[in-house]
Amino acid sequence: KAGVTQTPRYLIKTRGQQVTLSCSPISGHRSVSWYQQTPGQGLQFLFEYFSETQRNKGNFPGRFSGRQFSNSRSEMNVSTLELGDSALYLCASSLRDLAASYEQYFGPGTRLTVT
Amino acid sequence: GQQVMQIPQYQHVQEGEDFTTYCNSSTTLSNIQWYKQRPGGHPVFLIQLVKSGEVKKQKRLTFQFGEAKKNSSLHITATQTTDVGTYFCAGGYSSASKIIFGSGTRLSIRP
């Protein structure tokens, strides 16, 4: 089975721009979660999508949004980029929603740099 | 709200020494998961503990879940250079549909 894929792998944007990141989960997985990882901050939960519905959201401003398509692929959008948004964005797929606590399979991440 | 605290933040050991990382939750957990992230890599699932007092072993790694289901530990015996990385615990709170990651413990090893 192919693993979780994320595109693009690297991205450089300037302040004020917007960005869209994509995640394709493992075949058959219906849950996709997004995390922001910065040095010293660990993995900060952004949101989870299951069957095209947002199930849960972390403590991030409304500039961070996402969606999930019927094939379970997910996109994350960040508008009006700020320098502090520079981070590794990881998506993770799971067979079931987070409430079921199945293991999560992480993609390689998208490294976003905001200048 | 739910919080997962993980200590220590860093640990630097001599190869062959043991290593332990600890996680504590502010409230009772449904389960706990452990992940390992190698430098430059992404987190990889190691194990899940569900039962109170549960102990599981994977070769040199021993995982424990506290009796009150509020704490957990990962112990590595006789570390090797391949153990280098950051170890994360992730607390599952099924009633809140949440999994919350600890801040991770970064393990480095002197050969």
Oligomer: heterodimer
Q: Could you say which overall geometry of chain A the principal axes of the C-alpha atoms support? A: globular
SSE class of chain B: mainly beta
Q: Separation of termini of chain A? A: 37 Å
Radius of gyration of chain B: 13 Å
Average pLDDT level of chain B: 95
* Most extensive interface between two protein chains, with residue counts: A-B, 24 and 23 residues
User: What can be said about the biggest beta sheet of chain A?
Assistant: 7 strands, mixed
What sequence of helices (H) and strands (E) makes up the elements of chain B? EEEEEEEEEEE
Low-confidence stretches of chain A: none
Largest sheet of chain B: 6 strands, mixed
Q: Into which percent range does the helicity of residues of chain A fall? A: under 10%
Give structural notes.
The complex is a heterodimer of chains A (115) and B (111). By secondary structure, chain A is mainly beta. Chain A has no helices and 11 strands. Chain A has strands at residues 5-7, 10-13, 19-24, 31-38, 42-50, 53-57, 64-68, 74-78, 87-94, 105-106, 110-114. In chain A, the strands form 2 sheets. In chain A, strands 2, 4, 5, 6, 9, 10 and 11 form a 7-stranded mixed β-sheet that branches. Chain A has a 4-stranded antiparallel β-sheet with strand order 1-3-8-7, with no helix packed on it. In chain A, strand 4 (31-38) and strand 5 (42-50) form a beta hairpin. Chain A is globular. The model of chain A has no long low-confidence stretch (mean pLDDT 93). Chain B has 111 residues and is an all-beta fold. Chain B contains no helices and 11 strands. In chain B, strands 2, 4, 5, 9, 10 and 11 form a 6-stranded mixed β-sheet that branches. The A-B interface holds A 33, 35, 40-43, 45, 48, 55-56, 90, 92, 97-101, 103-109 and B 30-31, 33, 35, 41-45, 48, 88, 90, 92, 94-95, 97-104.
